[in-house]
Amino acid sequence: MDARQLWLRFEPYHDVTYFTPESRAATDALGCKGGWMGYFGMRAAPLGAAPPELVTAVFYNFAPRMVSRALPDAWAVASPAEYLRVRLEGVDGALRRMLGSVDTPEIAEAATLARAAALAAPLAGRPLAAANRALPWPAEPHLALWHACTILREARGDGHVAALVAHGVGPCQALALYAREHSLDPAYMRAARGWTVEEWEEADVPGDLAAVERATDAAALAPWEALGASRTSRFIDLMTPLALRIASANEAMRVNPMALDPVRELAVPGWNT
């Protein structure tokens, strides 16, 4: 099983959570001051009204000052429960726009498989995955699929943070290494995570990012090993057209700090015919 190929299929489905017009409208309606307050409020909400220090530690690669501009002020705007409510509202609207019909047998089947994988994801040492797992499962299949993808995504991300720490790669250093490896604009990456030029230059030192990525992939395999090869293969088949459709419709997939480009990387001829 290829953990990255699986990630390419569930990450786009999760990413509608934060960077879509529907998501921004939902958090603006709450009273958030800018998109980043909405982002930190929605993503951190499963942790409760977490202080900025905790969120900085768990999210890992954001500069502390960037988190502190949003938190704890976001909790004065609305409760974590309200952020969770509007998060789901924005996801629902974005998926309906991007996918058209969400009431399909394929989405229902994908949701069943994704839920089984998500329930098999290890939670020890994975705070964001565990916090999302503790939330109620949405009833509608397209939202249950999103919830499962979110757990799987955060479980992989938590494992990635553990690998970075174990290999001695710091938050800003990880971004600098990744930007160089994937030919991403350093100015864009600094702005996306709030680091200064001086901090970036100081952190831009060698590190074994390849070893980190191998450890991340290895730590992300448990859900799929539990699901089994046959059902994992079926999940891939079901998610590929969904990932491609979302990636084509979501502007956040054009340029992003993950260098994620499902349309190019999946390269499925005739997928949209």
TrEMBL record:
<dbReference type="Pfam" id="PF21863">
    <property type="entry name" value="HTH_67"/>
</dbReference>
<dbReference type="InterPro" id="IPR054058">
    <property type="entry name" value="HTH_67"/>
</dbReference>
<protein>
    <recommendedName>
        <fullName>SalK</fullName>
    </recommendedName>
</protein>
